[in-house]
Design a protein that fits this description.
With 441 residues, the protein is an alpha+beta fold. It folds into 2 domains: 128 residues; 247 residues, no CATH class. 28% of the residues lie in helices and 20% in strands. It is built from 15 helices and 15 strands. The strands form 3 sheets. Strands 1, 2, 3, 4, 5, 6 and 7 form a 7-stranded mixed β-sheet that branches. A 4-stranded mixed β-sheet has the order 8-15-11-9. It has a 4-stranded mixed β-sheet with strand order 10-14-13-12. Helix 8 packs across helix 13. It starts with a strand and ends in an 18-residue tail after the last helix.
Length: 441
Amino acid sequence: MYNLLVTAMEGAWDKRFYEYDKSRFLEYTNEDIASVLKGLSESQIENLKSYPCLFAYEGEDSDVRIGYLTSIKERGRNILIEFEFQQDIDPIPFERIQPIAPLLDIRGWEMNRTHWAVKDEDLFARLRSKGVLEPDRESRTTKQERPASAKSTDPKISKVQGFIGKVLSLEKEEGYEVFYRGHSNKKKYKLEPSLFRRDEDGNYLYKDNEHILYRELLVSNSADFQSDVYTLDSLVRMQHYSLPTRLLDITSNPLIALYFGCKSSLDEDGEVIVFTMKRNAIKYFDSDVASCIANLARLPQTGKDEIQFDENGFNDQLPIKRLLHFIREEKPFFEPRIIPNDLRKIICVKGKQSNDRITSQSGAFLLYGIDAVFDESGTPDIAVSRITITNKKSILKELDFLNINESTVFPYIENSAKYVADKFKFNKPIQPTLKSGATDE
Protein backbone atom coordinates (compact mmCIF):
# COMPACT_ATOMS: atom_id res chain seq x y z
CA MET A 1 0.00 0.00 0.00
CA TYR A 2 1.16 3.55 -0.65
CA ASN A 3 -0.23 7.10 -0.83
CA LEU A 4 -0.07 8.96 -4.14
CA LEU A 5 -0.35 12.71 -3.52
CA VAL A 6 -0.64 15.00 -6.55
CA THR A 7 -0.99 18.79 -6.57
CA ALA A 8 -0.98 21.59 -9.12
CA MET A 9 0.33 24.13 -6.59
CA GLU A 10 3.91 24.97 -7.50
CA GLY A 11 6.33 24.45 -4.60
CA ALA A 12 3.62 22.94 -2.37
CA TRP A 13 5.78 20.01 -1.24
CA ASP A 14 8.56 22.36 -0.10
CA LYS A 15 6.37 23.61 2.79
CA ARG A 16 6.08 20.22 4.53
CA PHE A 17 2.32 20.67 4.94
CA TYR A 18 -0.63 20.78 2.55
CA GLU A 19 -4.44 20.94 2.59
CA TYR A 20 -6.60 18.73 0.37
CA ASP A 21 -10.28 19.32 -0.21
CA LYS A 22 -12.08 16.23 1.13
CA SER A 23 -13.65 15.70 -2.28
CA ARG A 24 -10.16 14.92 -3.68
CA PHE A 25 -9.36 12.33 -0.98
CA LEU A 26 -9.47 8.73 -2.30
CA GLU A 27 -9.99 9.65 -5.93
CA TYR A 28 -8.55 6.94 -8.24
CA THR A 29 -8.64 4.52 -5.30
CA ASN A 30 -10.20 1.07 -5.52
CA GLU A 31 -13.67 1.16 -3.98
CA ASP A 32 -13.03 -1.59 -1.41
CA ILE A 33 -10.12 0.41 0.01
CA ALA A 34 -11.88 3.78 -0.19
CA SER A 35 -14.95 2.46 1.66
CA VAL A 36 -12.77 1.57 4.65
CA LEU A 37 -10.59 4.69 4.78
CA LYS A 38 -13.24 7.33 4.09
CA GLY A 39 -14.15 7.78 7.78
CA LEU A 40 -10.60 8.80 8.80
CA SER A 41 -10.92 7.09 12.16
CA GLU A 42 -7.92 7.13 14.48
CA SER A 43 -6.87 3.63 13.41
CA GLN A 44 -7.22 4.46 9.71
CA ILE A 45 -5.17 7.63 10.13
CA GLU A 46 -2.43 5.48 11.67
CA ASN A 47 -2.68 3.13 8.68
CA LEU A 48 -2.31 6.04 6.24
CA LYS A 49 0.70 7.35 8.14
CA SER A 50 2.37 3.94 7.94
CA TYR A 51 2.15 3.80 4.13
CA PRO A 52 5.00 5.34 2.12
CA CYS A 53 4.05 8.32 -0.05
CA LEU A 54 4.83 9.43 -3.58
CA PHE A 55 4.64 13.25 -3.66
CA ALA A 56 4.09 14.49 -7.21
CA TYR A 57 3.01 17.56 -9.18
CA GLU A 58 0.45 17.64 -11.97
CA GLY A 59 1.95 16.98 -15.37
CA GLU A 60 4.97 14.87 -16.18
CA ASP A 61 7.87 17.36 -16.01
CA SER A 62 8.58 17.63 -12.27
CA ASP A 63 10.49 15.38 -9.91
CA VAL A 64 8.66 13.24 -7.38
CA ARG A 65 9.69 12.72 -3.75
CA ILE A 66 9.25 9.78 -1.39
CA GLY A 67 8.34 10.15 2.26
CA TYR A 68 5.73 9.60 4.95
CA LEU A 69 2.82 11.47 6.46
CA THR A 70 3.44 12.61 10.04
CA SER A 71 0.03 14.17 10.78
CA ILE A 72 -3.50 14.03 9.31
CA LYS A 73 -6.19 16.37 10.63
CA GLU A 74 -9.68 17.22 9.39
CA ARG A 75 -10.25 20.97 9.02
CA GLY A 76 -13.85 21.59 7.99
CA ARG A 77 -14.11 20.55 4.34
CA ASN A 78 -10.33 20.12 4.11
CA ILE A 79 -7.75 17.60 5.29
CA LEU A 80 -4.47 19.03 6.56
CA ILE A 81 -1.45 16.78 6.15
CA GLU A 82 2.08 17.21 7.42
CA PHE A 83 4.89 15.08 6.05
CA GLU A 84 8.59 14.42 5.83
CA PHE A 85 10.74 13.13 2.97
CA GLN A 86 13.10 10.18 3.11
CA GLN A 87 16.36 12.11 3.33
CA ASP A 88 18.40 9.25 1.89
CA ILE A 89 16.28 9.12 -1.29
CA ASP A 90 16.95 11.81 -3.86
CA PRO A 91 14.17 13.38 -5.97
CA ILE A 92 13.18 11.08 -8.84
CA PRO A 93 12.47 12.46 -12.33
CA PHE A 94 8.93 11.52 -13.32
CA GLU A 95 10.23 10.22 -16.64
CA ARG A 96 11.66 7.28 -14.66
CA ILE A 97 8.27 6.64 -13.03
CA GLN A 98 6.17 6.98 -16.18
CA PRO A 99 7.22 3.67 -17.85
CA ILE A 100 6.11 1.69 -14.78
CA ALA A 101 2.99 3.77 -14.03
CA PRO A 102 0.62 0.80 -14.62
CA LEU A 103 2.61 -1.30 -12.11
CA LEU A 104 2.07 1.47 -9.54
CA ASP A 105 -1.64 1.74 -10.46
CA ILE A 106 -1.18 5.29 -11.78
CA ARG A 107 -3.97 5.61 -14.32
CA GLY A 108 -4.52 7.51 -17.57
CA TRP A 109 -5.12 11.18 -16.80
CA GLU A 110 -4.52 10.77 -13.08
CA MET A 111 -1.37 12.91 -13.11
CA ASN A 112 -3.40 15.83 -14.48
CA ARG A 113 -5.63 16.21 -11.42
CA THR A 114 -4.93 17.33 -7.85
CA HIS A 115 -5.92 14.42 -5.60
CA TRP A 116 -4.88 11.96 -2.90
CA ALA A 117 -5.13 8.28 -3.85
CA VAL A 118 -4.27 5.14 -1.89
CA LYS A 119 -2.86 2.35 -4.04
CA ASP A 120 -2.75 -1.36 -3.35
CA GLU A 121 0.85 -1.77 -4.49
CA ASP A 122 4.20 -2.18 -2.73
CA LEU A 123 5.90 1.08 -3.72
CA PHE A 124 9.45 0.19 -2.67
CA ALA A 125 9.33 -3.33 -4.16
CA ARG A 126 8.13 -1.95 -7.51
CA LEU A 127 10.76 0.80 -7.60
CA ARG A 128 13.57 -1.58 -6.60
CA SER A 129 12.58 -4.26 -9.11
CA LYS A 130 12.67 -1.74 -11.97
CA GLY A 131 15.95 -0.15 -10.94
CA VAL A 132 14.44 3.19 -9.91
CA LEU A 133 15.77 2.64 -6.37
CA GLU A 134 18.87 0.77 -5.29
CA PRO A 135 18.18 -2.94 -4.66
CA ASP A 136 18.95 -2.71 -0.95
CA ARG A 137 16.76 0.35 -0.37
CA GLU A 138 14.23 -0.34 2.40
CA SER A 139 11.21 1.53 3.62
CA ARG A 140 10.99 3.12 7.06
CA THR A 141 8.45 0.52 8.10
CA THR A 142 7.25 -2.82 6.81
CA LYS A 143 3.60 -2.28 7.81
CA GLN A 144 1.73 -1.80 4.54
CA GLU A 145 -1.27 -4.09 4.94
CA ARG A 146 -4.71 -3.40 3.56
CA PRO A 147 -6.83 -1.37 6.00
CA ALA A 148 -9.22 -3.35 8.16
CA SER A 149 -12.84 -2.30 8.53
CA ALA A 150 -13.67 -0.70 11.87
CA LYS A 151 -16.09 -2.65 14.02
CA SER A 152 -19.58 -1.14 13.96
CA THR A 153 -21.11 0.14 17.18
CA ASP A 154 -24.47 1.04 15.62
CA PRO A 155 -27.57 -0.45 17.30
CA LYS A 156 -29.03 -3.50 15.52
CA ILE A 157 -32.67 -4.35 14.96
CA SER A 158 -34.31 -7.47 13.51
CA LYS A 159 -38.00 -6.58 13.84
CA VAL A 160 -40.20 -3.66 12.84
CA GLN A 161 -41.30 -3.23 16.45
CA GLY A 162 -37.71 -2.81 17.57
CA PHE A 163 -37.05 -0.33 14.79
CA ILE A 164 -40.07 1.80 15.69
CA GLY A 165 -38.99 1.76 19.32
CA LYS A 166 -35.49 2.87 18.37
CA VAL A 167 -36.82 5.71 16.17
CA LEU A 168 -39.22 6.90 18.86
CA SER A 169 -36.40 6.90 21.41
CA LEU A 170 -34.39 9.40 19.38
CA GLU A 171 -34.64 12.85 20.88
CA LYS A 172 -36.23 15.46 18.63
CA GLU A 173 -35.60 19.01 19.75
CA GLU A 174 -37.98 21.86 19.11
CA GLY A 175 -37.22 23.56 15.80
CA TYR A 176 -35.50 20.51 14.30
CA GLU A 177 -36.67 18.11 11.59
CA VAL A 178 -35.70 14.48 11.04
CA PHE A 179 -35.24 12.58 7.75
CA TYR A 180 -34.22 9.02 6.95
CA ARG A 181 -32.50 7.02 4.23
CA GLY A 182 -32.22 3.25 3.84
CA HIS A 183 -29.18 1.42 2.43
CA SER A 184 -29.53 -2.27 1.59
CA ASN A 185 -25.79 -2.89 2.09
CA LYS A 186 -24.17 -0.83 4.83
CA LYS A 187 -20.66 -1.81 3.72
CA LYS A 188 -21.14 -0.78 0.11
CA TYR A 189 -23.21 2.40 -0.05
CA LYS A 190 -22.08 5.89 0.92
CA LEU A 191 -23.94 9.15 1.38
CA GLU A 192 -23.30 10.37 -2.12
CA PRO A 193 -25.63 11.05 -5.06
CA SER A 194 -25.64 8.71 -8.05
CA LEU A 195 -23.81 11.34 -10.13
CA PHE A 196 -20.72 10.97 -7.92
CA ARG A 197 -20.55 7.18 -7.96
CA ARG A 198 -17.39 5.45 -9.14
CA ASP A 199 -16.44 2.07 -10.53
CA GLU A 200 -14.42 -0.48 -8.58
CA ASP A 201 -11.21 1.24 -9.68
CA GLY A 202 -12.33 4.60 -8.29
CA ASN A 203 -13.14 6.29 -11.63
CA TYR A 204 -16.20 8.53 -11.85
CA LEU A 205 -18.94 6.95 -13.96
CA TYR A 206 -21.07 9.99 -14.80
CA LYS A 207 -19.76 13.21 -13.23
CA ASP A 208 -17.75 14.49 -16.20
CA ASN A 209 -20.80 14.24 -18.47
CA GLU A 210 -23.42 15.73 -16.14
CA HIS A 211 -24.35 18.56 -18.54
CA ILE A 212 -24.76 16.07 -21.40
CA LEU A 213 -26.96 13.70 -19.34
CA TYR A 214 -29.17 16.65 -18.39
CA ARG A 215 -29.63 17.87 -21.96
CA GLU A 216 -30.01 14.45 -23.57
CA LEU A 217 -32.95 13.50 -21.36
CA LEU A 218 -34.60 16.85 -22.03
CA VAL A 219 -34.15 16.37 -25.77
CA SER A 220 -35.55 12.85 -25.83
CA ASN A 221 -38.44 13.46 -23.40
CA SER A 222 -39.16 17.18 -23.68
CA ALA A 223 -42.93 16.84 -23.21
CA ASP A 224 -42.44 15.38 -19.73
CA PHE A 225 -40.52 18.48 -18.59
CA GLN A 226 -42.72 21.23 -20.02
CA SER A 227 -44.34 22.04 -16.68
CA ASP A 228 -41.02 22.45 -14.86
CA VAL A 229 -40.22 26.03 -13.87
CA TYR A 230 -36.86 25.55 -12.18
CA THR A 231 -33.83 23.42 -13.03
CA LEU A 232 -34.36 21.78 -9.64
CA ASP A 233 -37.82 20.65 -10.81
CA SER A 234 -36.20 18.96 -13.81
CA LEU A 235 -33.51 17.33 -11.67
CA VAL A 236 -36.18 15.91 -9.35
CA ARG A 237 -38.02 14.47 -12.35
CA MET A 238 -34.77 13.08 -13.76
CA GLN A 239 -34.01 11.47 -10.41
CA HIS A 240 -37.46 9.90 -10.58
CA TYR A 241 -36.53 8.38 -13.96
CA SER A 242 -33.24 7.04 -12.49
CA LEU A 243 -30.92 9.44 -14.31
CA PRO A 244 -27.73 10.07 -12.26
CA THR A 245 -28.09 13.51 -10.63
CA ARG A 246 -26.58 15.50 -7.75
CA LEU A 247 -29.66 14.71 -5.63
CA LEU A 248 -29.75 12.11 -2.85
CA ASP A 249 -33.20 10.84 -1.84
CA ILE A 250 -34.23 11.06 1.81
CA THR A 251 -37.66 10.61 3.41
CA SER A 252 -39.61 11.87 6.41
CA ASN A 253 -41.17 8.39 6.84
CA PRO A 254 -38.84 6.00 8.73
CA LEU A 255 -40.76 2.90 7.54
CA ILE A 256 -40.08 3.85 3.92
CA ALA A 257 -36.36 4.04 4.75
CA LEU A 258 -36.58 0.67 6.50
CA TYR A 259 -38.18 -0.84 3.39
CA PHE A 260 -35.33 0.40 1.20
CA GLY A 261 -32.82 -0.92 3.71
CA CYS A 262 -34.35 -4.41 3.36
CA LYS A 263 -35.56 -4.73 -0.23
CA SER A 264 -32.33 -6.11 -1.74
CA SER A 265 -29.03 -7.72 -0.72
CA LEU A 266 -30.97 -9.95 1.65
CA ASP A 267 -27.83 -11.69 2.93
CA GLU A 268 -26.07 -8.42 3.82
CA ASP A 269 -26.72 -6.13 6.78
CA GLY A 270 -28.62 -3.00 5.78
CA GLU A 271 -28.92 0.29 7.62
CA VAL A 272 -31.18 3.26 8.13
CA ILE A 273 -29.40 6.61 8.39
CA VAL A 274 -31.11 9.26 10.52
CA PHE A 275 -30.53 12.94 9.65
CA THR A 276 -31.38 15.67 12.14
CA MET A 277 -31.21 19.33 11.12
CA LYS A 278 -32.63 22.72 12.02
CA ARG A 279 -35.96 23.39 10.33
CA ASN A 280 -34.90 26.87 9.25
CA ALA A 281 -31.93 25.36 7.35
CA ILE A 282 -34.22 23.39 5.03
CA LYS A 283 -34.68 24.95 1.59
CA TYR A 284 -37.64 24.75 -0.78
CA PHE A 285 -37.94 24.34 -4.55
CA ASP A 286 -37.76 28.12 -5.17
CA SER A 287 -34.69 28.75 -2.98
CA ASP A 288 -31.95 30.95 -4.50
CA VAL A 289 -29.21 28.71 -3.06
CA ALA A 290 -30.96 25.66 -4.52
CA SER A 291 -31.05 27.38 -7.93
CA CYS A 292 -27.32 28.13 -7.75
CA ILE A 293 -26.42 24.51 -6.97
CA ALA A 294 -28.99 22.87 -9.25
CA ASN A 295 -27.85 24.85 -12.30
CA LEU A 296 -24.36 23.41 -11.92
CA ALA A 297 -25.90 20.47 -13.80
CA ARG A 298 -25.92 22.63 -16.93
CA LEU A 299 -22.30 23.74 -16.64
CA PRO A 300 -19.66 21.56 -18.37
CA GLN A 301 -17.16 19.86 -16.07
CA THR A 302 -14.32 21.88 -17.59
CA GLY A 303 -16.13 25.04 -16.44
CA LYS A 304 -16.60 23.67 -12.92
CA ASP A 305 -12.91 22.77 -12.73
CA GLU A 306 -11.91 26.32 -13.75
CA ILE A 307 -13.78 28.02 -10.88
CA GLN A 308 -11.39 29.64 -8.41
CA PHE A 309 -13.10 30.00 -5.03
CA ASP A 310 -10.42 32.09 -3.34
CA GLU A 311 -10.24 34.93 -5.88
CA ASN A 312 -11.64 38.40 -5.11
CA GLY A 313 -13.33 38.67 -8.51
CA PHE A 314 -15.28 35.44 -8.02
CA ASN A 315 -18.36 36.60 -9.95
CA ASP A 316 -16.25 37.97 -12.82
CA GLN A 317 -15.01 34.50 -13.80
CA LEU A 318 -16.34 33.21 -17.11
CA PRO A 319 -17.82 29.94 -15.67
CA ILE A 320 -19.66 31.93 -12.96
CA LYS A 321 -21.03 34.37 -15.55
CA ARG A 322 -22.34 31.40 -17.51
CA LEU A 323 -23.87 29.92 -14.37
CA LEU A 324 -25.53 33.25 -13.59
CA HIS A 325 -27.01 33.22 -17.09
CA PHE A 326 -28.63 29.84 -16.38
CA ILE A 327 -29.97 31.03 -13.01
CA ARG A 328 -31.48 34.20 -14.48
CA GLU A 329 -33.31 32.19 -17.12
CA GLU A 330 -35.52 30.86 -14.30
CA LYS A 331 -35.15 33.87 -11.98
CA PRO A 332 -34.88 37.05 -14.09
CA PHE A 333 -34.48 39.29 -11.02
CA PHE A 334 -31.66 37.26 -9.45
CA GLU A 335 -28.80 39.64 -8.61
CA PRO A 336 -25.62 38.81 -10.56
CA ARG A 337 -23.77 37.88 -7.40
CA ILE A 338 -23.18 34.36 -6.06
CA ILE A 339 -21.73 33.67 -2.62
CA PRO A 340 -18.77 31.35 -3.39
CA ASN A 341 -19.33 28.95 -0.51
CA ASP A 342 -22.96 28.37 -1.57
CA LEU A 343 -21.76 26.39 -4.58
CA ARG A 344 -19.94 23.89 -2.36
CA LYS A 345 -22.72 23.27 0.15
CA ILE A 346 -24.89 20.24 0.76
CA ILE A 347 -28.42 21.43 1.48
CA CYS A 348 -31.69 19.71 2.32
CA VAL A 349 -34.39 20.74 -0.13
CA LYS A 350 -38.08 19.96 -0.41
CA GLY A 351 -39.11 19.80 -4.06
CA LYS A 352 -42.59 19.90 -5.50
CA GLN A 353 -44.69 16.75 -5.11
CA SER A 354 -44.61 16.42 -8.88
CA ASN A 355 -45.20 12.67 -9.09
CA ASP A 356 -46.85 9.88 -7.12
CA ARG A 357 -43.56 8.30 -6.15
CA ILE A 358 -42.32 11.39 -4.28
CA THR A 359 -45.69 11.67 -2.55
CA SER A 360 -45.86 8.00 -1.54
CA GLN A 361 -42.27 8.01 -0.28
CA SER A 362 -42.61 11.31 1.64
CA GLY A 363 -39.60 12.43 -0.33
CA ALA A 364 -37.09 15.21 0.13
CA PHE A 365 -33.50 15.49 -1.13
CA LEU A 366 -29.96 16.39 -0.22
CA LEU A 367 -28.59 18.59 -3.03
CA TYR A 368 -24.81 18.45 -3.49
CA GLY A 369 -22.65 21.35 -4.65
CA ILE A 370 -19.30 21.23 -6.47
CA ASP A 371 -17.11 18.37 -5.18
CA ALA A 372 -19.25 18.25 -2.03
CA VAL A 373 -18.56 15.31 0.27
CA PHE A 374 -20.93 14.38 3.08
CA ASP A 375 -18.98 13.40 6.19
CA GLU A 376 -20.33 9.93 7.04
CA SER A 377 -20.29 10.81 10.74
CA GLY A 378 -22.31 14.00 10.20
CA THR A 379 -21.65 17.68 9.56
CA PRO A 380 -21.94 20.83 11.68
CA ASP A 381 -25.38 21.39 10.13
CA ILE A 382 -26.69 17.83 9.86
CA ALA A 383 -26.36 15.29 12.69
CA VAL A 384 -26.20 11.65 11.61
CA SER A 385 -26.97 8.41 13.45
CA ARG A 386 -27.39 4.89 12.13
CA ILE A 387 -29.44 1.78 12.80
CA THR A 388 -28.17 -1.58 11.47
CA ILE A 389 -30.79 -3.91 9.98
CA THR A 390 -30.69 -7.72 10.09
CA ASN A 391 -33.29 -10.44 9.41
CA LYS A 392 -34.49 -8.60 6.30
CA LYS A 393 -36.91 -11.22 4.96
CA SER A 394 -38.88 -11.23 8.19
CA ILE A 395 -38.93 -7.42 8.35
CA LEU A 396 -40.27 -7.21 4.78
CA LYS A 397 -43.14 -9.51 5.75
CA GLU A 398 -43.92 -7.33 8.78
CA LEU A 399 -43.80 -4.19 6.62
CA ASP A 400 -46.24 -5.81 4.21
CA PHE A 401 -48.73 -6.17 7.07
CA LEU A 402 -48.36 -2.39 7.51
CA ASN A 403 -49.03 -1.86 3.79
CA ILE A 404 -45.42 -0.91 3.05
CA ASN A 405 -44.51 -2.92 -0.03
CA GLU A 406 -43.52 -2.56 -3.68
CA SER A 407 -47.05 -1.67 -4.70
CA THR A 408 -47.37 1.25 -2.28
CA VAL A 409 -43.78 2.49 -2.33
CA PHE A 410 -43.66 2.46 -6.15
CA PRO A 411 -47.27 3.35 -7.04
CA TYR A 412 -47.37 2.35 -10.68
CA ILE A 413 -49.66 -0.22 -12.23
CA GLU A 414 -46.79 -2.44 -13.36
CA ASN A 415 -45.42 -2.58 -9.81
CA SER A 416 -48.87 -3.21 -8.36
CA ALA A 417 -49.44 -5.99 -10.89
CA LYS A 418 -46.09 -7.62 -10.03
CA TYR A 419 -46.81 -7.38 -6.31
CA VAL A 420 -50.32 -8.88 -6.66
CA ALA A 421 -49.07 -11.66 -8.94
CA ASP A 422 -46.26 -12.63 -6.53
CA LYS A 423 -48.51 -12.47 -3.49
CA PHE A 424 -51.23 -14.73 -4.89
CA LYS A 425 -49.04 -17.03 -6.97
CA PHE A 426 -50.10 -20.68 -6.64
CA ASN A 427 -47.63 -22.74 -4.66
CA LYS A 428 -47.92 -26.42 -5.47
CA PRO A 429 -48.53 -28.36 -2.22
CA ILE A 430 -45.86 -30.84 -1.20
CA GLN A 431 -46.99 -34.47 -1.50
CA PRO A 432 -46.37 -36.57 1.63
CA THR A 433 -43.71 -39.26 1.34
CA LEU A 434 -45.17 -42.73 1.97
CA LYS A 435 -43.26 -45.11 4.17
CA SER A 436 -42.40 -48.57 2.84
CA GLY A 437 -45.46 -50.85 2.83
CA ALA A 438 -47.94 -48.01 3.31
CA THR A 439 -50.71 -47.10 0.90
CA ASP A 440 -52.49 -43.84 0.10
CA GLU A 441 -55.95 -45.33 0.67
